Each structure stands twice: as C-alpha cells, then as structure tokens.
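Students often ask what a holo structure prediction actually looks like on paper. The answer is less mysterious than it sounds. You provide the chain, you provide the ligand, and the output is a string of discrete structure tokens encoding the 3D arrangement of the protein together with 2BA.
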Amino acid sequence: MKLVLAIVNSDDAPSVLNSLTEKGFQVTKLATTGGFLKVGNTTFITGVEDDKVDEVISIISDKSNKRTQAVPSATTAEMGMYRPIPFEITVGGATVFVLNVDKFEKL
Ligand code: 2BA
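The corresponding structure tokens follow.
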C-alpha cells in the first residue's frame, strides 16, 4: 500500500477532490500553507493499493493547472525611493509524494 500526498492550488482542490471520490478513492483534505509564497494551498492524503498509484496521480495531474505568479523581491533605488521588483514564478500543477505504508488499520 502507498500513501499519496499531493499539494495542489486551492482553486483546483474541488475538482481534484470530486474526481478522486467519483473514482472511489478515499481522500483526506488538509488546508496547508506554502512556505515560500506563504499563501494557502491544499494537501490531499490518499491511501491506495500499489497498482492504483498511477491512476491517482493521473487524476490529480488532469485537474491541477500550472500558474504563474508575481512575487515581489529585491528593491531598487530610484530617486532615493526603494520599490519592489516583481518576478514571476511557476506554481503547480501539483507536487506529489508517494510513500510506502508499513501498516494500515481502521480501529
Ligand atoms: P510554496 O512553498 O509557497 O512555493 C510556491 C512556488 O514558489 C513553488 O511552486 C515554486 O515555483 C516557487 N518556490 C518555492 N520555493 C522556492 C525557492 N526557495 N526559491 C524560488 N522559488 C521557490 P511549486 O514547486 O509548484 O510548489 C507549490 C507548493 O508545493 C509549495 O508552495 C509548497 O507548499 C509545496 N512544495 C513544493 N515542493 C515541496 C517540497 N519539496 N517539500 C514540501 N512541500 C513542497
């Protein structure tokens, strides 16, 4: 058994969640925050049999979109004023980790 941890943009979270549950996967949704942008994102935890991992990743991939986002960074001096210089980063579609599960029990 594997544990799939997927961090997705919160705007994509409803469609990822619906698709996974429609296909019969059990999912836990966590409200998380990215360390770099310090804005909310969504993390899904899904425990699945090994042969289902690719299907889960494919569903997450289909529903997760890449976005570019402007981030203020260094400042520049202009007539004695400092102002942020925005630069763009690409966020997502999804960041996925697949972990081995030693034991799974429902008590
Ligand atoms: P954030 O940490 O808020 O990162 C958002 C985006 O900022 C990242 O998109 C990446 O494009 C950029 N970024 C992150 N750290 C950076 C750095 N030190 N220097 C320059 N740019 C940086 P994604 O890579 O698509 O990541 C989206 C979210 O997935 C992240 O949000 C974080 O919550 C999570 N994540 C990504 N990689 C991770 C990892 N190795 N471990 C744990 N969480 C991760």
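DSSP finds two helices and six strands in the chain.
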